[in-house]
Design brief:
125 residues, Rossmann fold, 5-stranded parallel β-sheet
Length: 125
């Protein structure tokens, strides 16, 4: 399968990033990675992504700070949060700041993540 959709993975766990990249590329997505929110913000200013997969706990700039900055810039692309942070306040804030969905990494399989990405991007077409 090939598609023109691009996904930005913002994740500081190198292993998880690598696995997500591999699976999404298998599905035909163009995939880029950032290790933290600051790097991702720079990338979002330079190119348009169709969807962002975002961790919340990262060095330099965490996911919530990243979301705040995107909101100030009226960024409109869909954002899906994947995190180990299970505190309701942070997940609620992520949604308020523009995340469409929030999933706890330990509660969702890789196949489910790919299905969520595919499903969400199918709505955009």
């Amino acid at each position: 399968m090939t598609c023109n959709n691009s996904v930005l993975i913002v994740e500081d766990d190198a292993y998880l990033s690598k696995v997500l990249v591999g699976r999404l590329k298998e599905e035909g997505f163009k995939v880029r990675c950032a290790d933290d929110g600051l790097q991702a913000l720079t990338m979002c200013k330079a190119e348009k992504f169709d969807l962002i997969l975002l961790d919340l706990l990262m060095p330099v700039m965490g996911g919530l700070s990243f979301l705040r900055k995107l909101k100030k810039e009226s960024y409109r692309q869909p954002i899906i949060v994947l995190t180990n942070l299970a505190q309701d306040d942070e997940l609620k804030e992520a949604r308020t700041l523009g995340a469409e969905n929030c999933f706890i990494k330990s509660n969702i399989s890789l196949d489910e993540v790919v299905d969520k990405v595919k499903g969400r991007l199918a709505k955009v077409r």
